[in-house]
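Hey, I'm writing a tutorial for new members on how sequence and structure tokens pair up, and I'd like a real worked example in the thread rather than a made-up one. If someone can provide the structure for the chain below, I'll link this post from the tutorial.
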Amino acid sequence: MAKKEKEVVREVKFEYCSELSVDDYKLLRKHADFPKLSDEQVEFIFNKNGWRYCCKVDDEVIAMCRFLCDESSTLIITDIVVHTDWRIERAKIPERLIGSVVDYTKTILQPGEELQVILLNMDPWSKEQLEKQGYKQASDVLCKIIS
């Protein structure tokens, strides 16, 4: 009889990540089918815009997003990226990442206050997973791309 191998349990953490480096962010974007940007563009996005929240497995960043909150009722989550090696539907990484950001944001809201969550700019796989969880395309968002 074959000996059954012991399943390795890995620690998965979702947390505010102030120590994430721009090189980590570039690597994650590279492995997430994300729009290609120049190094300068990625560095600008990373250094100038919003707070970062990430998912780590054994201290390796496997997913992240950036977010902005006006400390009232609006939360904008953007650049949701999940490393291709961790795109396992049952793991629900995008949903858990967003849920963790929402929980983090609720700590600065008034008790009982509703939160409007706006999701922008994510890798195609994450978008598909979130749509399965009931997230819908918003009809009241105006957008213009200016070149």
